[in-house]
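call fold(seq) -> tokens
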Amino acid sequence: MVEETELENQNNQTKDQEENNRTDDIENEAEKFKNEGNVAYRKGNYLNAVELYTKSLEICPNSASAYGNRAAAYFMLKKYKESLNDSMKAISHDPTYVKGYLREGKANLFLGDISKAIASLEKAKSIDPSNSTINEELIKFKAVKNFSDEANISYDKGDFRKVVYLMDRCLNHSNDCYKFLLFKAECLALLGRYQEAQEIANEIVVKDQKNSDALYVRGMCLYYQGNSEVAFQHFQRVLQYEPDHQKAKVFYKSSKKLHNKKEQGNREFKAGNWQNAYSLYTECLEIDNKNKSINSILYFNRANASFKMNNIDACIEDCSKAIELDDGNLKAYLRRAKCYMETENYEAAVKDYNQAYKLDKSNKENYRLLKDAELQLKKSLRKDYYKILGVKKDASDDEIKKAYRKSALMHHPDRFPDASEEVKKQEEIKFKEIGEAYTILSDPNKKARYDNGQDLEEYGMHDNDHIDPNVLFKAFFGNINGNRSRNGFSGFEFSFG
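ret:
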């Protein structure tokens, strides 16, 4: 019995030794992979390091240091969620593992959870109070929290420029934090800096196609740039991935309502129901006063409705609002210019047509309209001979003669012998202008060149300064004698044939 017992003990000892040897071999193998991972990490081969640490953990899944090291490699690969998970596993296996708390804190910071990041470092500090690295990082983390808190206050106040500035300060300590980047991008969009906002959002979507905040920012940019239909699709995707995304819900409802009502207004306009269209566009303008691009289009659409109802002043006013919101709104410039032409405000029309031509120099019609407006402006700055005679621009020769006869008799200086010197002078000027107008409009060649806006001086035709209006008067009326006529003129008596 004694011999059998001793033999059994010897066998157990042998088995224990073999088991210990196997355990040592396993641990050595795990340690070997971990050390190889450390070498790869120091060389910057982080992906290879992750693979080696993973092999080590497959052999020895309770190694806090292996989890911690893999967390560091994941962090360098910008896989912050994986880094956070490994850091937490490392701490769970060794609650005194200081590096684990440091890596957990950094991962939380880059994931945008500042409070948790600070809590991780506070825990590390409680374990190792004299660790200078922990204290330095803690100061940085608390600074980031202050910037973030101030940014949230500024956002609520609508101070989006300050938010952008504060997010840049946060990003100095966490340059790849999606939360900070997208908060900045959102405020850039609200400031109208759509290209910058889209660049940030697009870069993140390339890396994470289901990032709801990045899709939301892209939708914002599209919405504010007037592409409400595609924006609507983006907000739909956001709500598929994150049904409780409150901001996306607001934009989803606004973009849907705006798109539907705008289309309704367009249908009424095409049907010739101008007043209904005007009212619907007005309702659209009340939906979102921040959407400058869409509102510029809506003001232009409403201006068109006013134009159709012959309300020129309202049309000009809405075109001006459209241009104020979007100074590249070509159609608004053209419509307002047309209104100015109709109201004979040629100088303003020239400015608008000139701007329209600058916006689209390839359109020959814009150039033609500009030249026509310049011609009308030039003509408007000359004496209006038709207006002086009181006739229309298509008046016949007989109508021009009758108008001259009537005006010349009415303003001849001899009709005002007892008037003041000022009145006499005014009537002399009028009398001279009447003669000048008749001289031009009664001559087919001069009249044609005048109507075309050509300078008569260039052709030696504008010699009216040398024409005595009395000579013209005598030539027109004829039958002159030296007595006062029954018409009240001294020196002339007229015979009407």
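The two ends are 168 Å apart (CA to CA).
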